[in-house]
Amino acid sequence: MTSTTTKAPLRKIAVRKAGTVRLTSAAAALYSDGCLPPIPWPF
Amino acid sequence: MTARPKAVLIYPPLTDPTSGYHSLSYIDSYARSRGYPAADMIDANIEAFHHSFSPAGAAWLEEALATPPAPDPLAHYDDVTWQMEALRTAEPDPAGVREAVAVLQDPERFYQYDHYARAVEQVIGWMNCLSGTGFPGQFTNGFQLRMPPAVALGSVAALRDEAVLERLARPFQPYVEDVLIPQLVAGDYDIVGLNITYQAQLPFALWLGRLIRRALPGVFLVAGGTEASDVWKYLRDKTQMFALFDSFDAVVVGEGETAWVEILESVRAGTVPSSHPNIRLHPRFRAMNLLPVRYEPIRGLPTPDFSRLPWDKYLSPERFVYYSPTRGCYWNRCTFCDYGLNTDGPTSPWRQDTVESIITDVTELSKFAKFVYFSVDVLAPATILRFAERVLETGIDVRWGAEIRLEKYWSDERCEILRRAGCVAVSVGFESGNQRILDLIDKGTRPDQVRQTITSMTKADIGVQMMGFTGFPTETAAEGRESIDFLLDNRDLWTFGGLGQFMLTSGAIVAREPDRFGVTNIRPLPGSDIQRVLLYDEPISEGARAEMSVAAARGFEVPHARPWLSSVDTPHSFFYHDRFGVRVRDALDRDLTARDDDQDRSFVLNGAFVDRPDEAVVDRLNTTYQIMYGTPIPADRLLFRRPDGQITPLPRSYLPILHLFRQPTTLRAAHARLWMLDAAAAGKVWQTLISRRLVRRLPEFPDRPVPDETPS
Ligand code: B12
Ligand code: SF4
């Protein structure tokens, strides 16, 4: 669920392991619903 | 007979559409208190937006979008950029944006996040369409301006190039040519004053200046505001000022009350306003002025009168006015700070009005608007507390917010008084979670004490909007992570906010005393004449920069990164805080979550699949995607575009699922068709679709035919 309480620990992991490489796996965990994050515009 | 001099004051685009800014009311109210006639006031930012979806505006837009774009006068944007622009832009939907405006102005639907989020998406989608008539990608997130690099850098040549200005301002051309200029001509004005508060208004103001000069050759044309002052402050070669403002007679640098009165007086007398130190005159007056600016004694300023702004047009359900009873900052020591109308310190000199006149003003303002925002660098703790006590004593009914410093002073009891007196939320610069960095900044705070203060605020149900940054000179990655950790570890003690990145500006103490901060080789950005930001060498923070920017961006991205139209801590944020208190994020989450009562509610697709663009476009998109997420967009993903142009790469398995929502469908009915998914898996899918707003709840929305956004 996207409640703040359950999202927070996930985000904490994403940031705690902040090395760019480890971050990738944390990001993957965050998006384990199979749906990737939206595309940031590189204009 | 018309009272002379007849003046009109204008707010040019591009700025916040949710309320009116106050600087012009300040100078006008002051002039009136000195016996001058009231000026007319035009908020061209909000007027141009409304005109864009009027029948005439919408017809123009449709035609403009159907015509291939004229060559880029800066020769900067390539075909790939245009394809990206096309990718984010759907067909213009004027009925949709009108409906969005109605929702944003509706005191009920505004507070239902489903409605609110849809309205914001529609407004952003509309601005994306307008953007397609200017430079690709120029309007982002609705009312933010992404300028072509030469313009953003402050190249005088680019900002003087009429083709560049015209192109950037093209989305507003119909309003300006068909409405604004005729209105100014008909108005028979002696003086036209333009406010330029934000950098994003500068190119539009310069363009307007040219059109106004042509239409009204004899008028006295003057600009002022924090951005006009910044141009002066950061312009390397001050003689270039009127190369830029060549259509203008004068620019007011610094505060404007007495300068505006001098301009009114000299136009009335037929003389040149050459004695006020804040008035920079065009060289043709041969009265070059390099005097230091004068700061106004703010005691005794009249209560600003906001009645001349077009309140029925702003995209808000309530009136929200800005009020500035203090100027400068009583601390005035932070080494990164280079703020507003300052000259030789971090901010301008500290001045504050008396609590009694603040009470008089707020009593007056509260009759006009429910929300009063203290639009100041900072409020002094004892003053706010005394103000709050007097509000309670006098029984003024008002909601308010302010920027404050995180002082120890704020005990539970004192915060409680603020809240009872109508304080809804505060904005605070916590800056860093690391003591060494806080000391280098000279912030005068400690993380444990900051935690205590925000705990007291939160207990009192005052929302805390947190701002900080990483990358201060000599900050290591470990120190930067302490700031991120501080925010995440205390996630329940602040509502919205996030972390930016340190940028060096020339007025900051860091730039004046670089040795203290390990900073060397300070230099301007190549190509910039208005040198707002400086480059420098400092290996430690530089080494940590890439990691910090990704970590900060990732850590604060979902799901509340940009919940509001415009930025954090603008009016919408305060309205929501007022309604929902410090639990405000729950009010958002409630609608971004698959709920039990959703089973029998209809949902419909919120957007459409778009064709995968050329590989060159995907490659370009991958540049930022790779940096942010460490992976390119997988080749087999389908791209789904929301109405706000946000594109989400989806696995193919989502295609049949989303297909179900082409027509309004309940989750129960959809699940019956997806019999192969067990309840848990279906729940997860619904959660994804709802939290990312790939589908939206239907029945609560007004009856409009569902557009056929059928994926191919
Ligand atoms: C309070 C404040 C906010 C508040 C409220 C802002 C608002 N009302 O919209 C909040 C927190 C929302 C905010 C947000 C932002 N802000 Co702000 N904000 C300020 C602050 C601290 C005070 C502004 C103020 O109210 N001053 C009091 C009024 C009465 O003074 P004034 O506007 O300067 O007007 C006087 C003179 O300029 C002059 N004048 C003005 N117009 C004219 C016209 C004529 C014809 C004449 C003669 C004179 C004249 O006379 C007036 C009376 O003395 C200033 C810093 C500062 N001290 O100036 C930054 C400042 C304006 N903000 C700034 C920025 C960058 C932002 C954001 C873009 C930050 C972000 N990245 O999100 C956002 C944008 C929000 C938006 N509207 O879209 C910058 C703008 C710099 C620039 N050149 O672009 C400033 C200058 C801070 C800085 N970095 O130096 N901000
Ligand atoms: S950062 Fe804030 S507290 Fe520090 S000097 Fe600037 S305005 Fe004052």
UniProtKB/TrEMBL annotation, chain A:
Superkingdom per UniProt: Bacteria
Protein name: Uncharacterized protein
From TrEMBL, chain B:
Residues of the Radical SAM core domain: 315-557
Statement: the UniProt record of this protein carries the keyword Iron-sulfur: yes
S-adenosyl-L-methionine in keyword set: yes
SUPFAM superfamilies according to UniProt: Radical SAM enzymes (SSF102114)
An annotated Gene Ontology molecular function: metal ion binding
B12-binding domain boundaries: 136-274
Keyword annotations from UniProtKB, A to Z: Iron, Iron-sulfur, Metal-binding, S-adenosyl-L-methionine
GO cellular component: cytosol
Cofactor list: [4Fe-4S] cluster
Protein name, per record: Radical SAM protein
